[in-house]
Amino acid sequence: MGLAYTIDSPVKVAQYGISSVISIVEDKLVEMMRSYYYPTIKQEYKPITEQEHDYRAKRITDYLNLMNTIVHEQVEKIRKTAFEAGSEIVKYFEMLPEDSRIKKLYREMMATSDKSLKSKIEAKLRAYIQPGSIDVNIMTKVDRNNFTKQGELIEDGSDAVAALRGYVKSNLVNSSVIFSAGMNPRLFNYMEGCNELHENENGVFTKKVVIKVSDYRSALIQGKYLAKKGIWVSEFRIESGLNCGGHAFATDGYLMGSILEEFKTKRQELTEALFEIYNAALQKNNKEVFAEPPAILFSAQGGIGDFEEDHFLHEYYNIDSTGWGTPFLLVPEATTVDDNTLQKLCDAKKRNIVLSKNSPLGVRFHYLKGTTADQIKQTRIQKGKPGSPCSEKLLAFNTEFTDTPICTASFKYQRLKIAQLQSQNLPADEYAKQLSDITDKECLCVGLSNTASIKYDQPFFNKRFDVNVCPGPNIVNFSEVVSLQAMTDHIYGRKEISMNKNRPHMFIAELQLYVDFITNELNDYKEGDEKKKKYFESFMQHLFEGIGYYRNLPGVAASNREKFIDDLGNAELELVALCQQYELIVARLDAAVIA
Known about the structure:
Blueprint: H1 9-13, E1 20-23, H2 27-37, H3 55-79, H4 88-94, H5 101-111, H6 115-128, E2 134-139, H7 159-168, E3 175-180, H8 185-191, E4 207-213, H9 216-228, E5 233-239, H10 256-284, E6 297-301, H11 307-317, E7 321-323, H12 339-347, E8 353-356, E9 365-368, H13 372-382, H14 411-422, H15 428-439, H16 450-455, H17 484-491, H18 506-523, H19 530-551, H20 561-581
Helix pairs in contact: 2-3, 3-7, 5-6, 9-10, 14-15, 18-19, 18-20, 19-20
């Protein structure tokens, strides 16, 4: 979701048993939130300055401990609340899913007129109240080296490593660290020495490792790498390659349904493969081995829109849990969004959400056009001064023109890159395209953080107030600010919130995103590039296979099966036309059945 949008979600939702994820790599944002929240619990805020040793990790540790303290105080308060209309304890139980055994006990308590029985059940219910987990996210690619004032490399001081150290030293329990954006050997190697990520004396993981993946192969590779280090992956979070918020990592045409099918089929195989390596690593380090594999959960996220889709993922693919991210941007009780950005999210249409090249990481990035950051960027471009100030340098990795890494969204880089471009005497259309690719790059460190500064009236970086936001394409289907209760009712199928009536099924939405993606890629295709041509043929082949898979998938889109099949046929027609236009040879093409 971005740095600030869930930076304090635990204090908003954990008291109701709802888990949330904090992005912890931006330590200045974390420090700002420390200064905001300490006074709310009547405690003195003591700054952790950049002069302190290991200040990044210390800021993160203390902030997570602070969140944990606030959440547990909230839970204790709820436990003491009376069971009466509108109370927080009633809200807690009303938001639980209908099939929860605790929810059923709550219904029994509410229905009984026996005061003695009611009192006994109430006592049980109060004991059952537990906070949602406070989880953290570390994007593995955001791992800049840091140096002393003397220019010496700080050992284990890179951004991601320091963030992980801050997390493991916190007092969180029943918590997870979620790694996204692929494998980072330095970070993963560091994990081996983090005792907090290993099982405790009771064989329990109090801090769990979760890996976000877009396909089975990625899960197997990363899971094996960590198992060799004696680190057990407790959850694989399967995310759509394109139907997601933030940075998007497109697969080679493999669609989410087919990917989930592979996980379903090979779930036991994956567990056993990792367990064998994991136990061998434990034995090598003279640790007690496990008799049975520790649990591995499999979760899914990416464009889920309603209860039917959510239920199908659980029932057909045996998914343990699902993630709903983007819709919660319209729930002020759950996320931190300034009023201006909130309204833009409500008004967002398909044309406003783009799979952009705006990220300095060089990875495609879902982006809402028209934000204050977008407006400021366009103004700078019009004035002939493209680029942004670069105060945080979290994404400063480019050394094309400088010995010291700089950010591709910075004034400095864009000035140098444009000068290079101008010297190449390119045709006008090619020059315009490459110029746009340069100037599209945008500061994310500040833009994804500032919403908290504005919302809580806190001073932030260099008096800048530009905000950008990276929702998933699914945001266009939600157009109203809703309460936390309303959103949970929608998720659990109790009462739907207002949605786009023409919303395609989540699988169709992702398929269309892939069709759009490969269309744009083909537009840049230059004849004679045989390697690229084979990539396109393979990509198309996988898309055709995915369509065939969906056409034969039992139970999917049960409430509107006819439209689902029609949408598959339309996408297939579009792909056939693309193949013919670019003269791509795809094995399935001749045998394709157009429904």
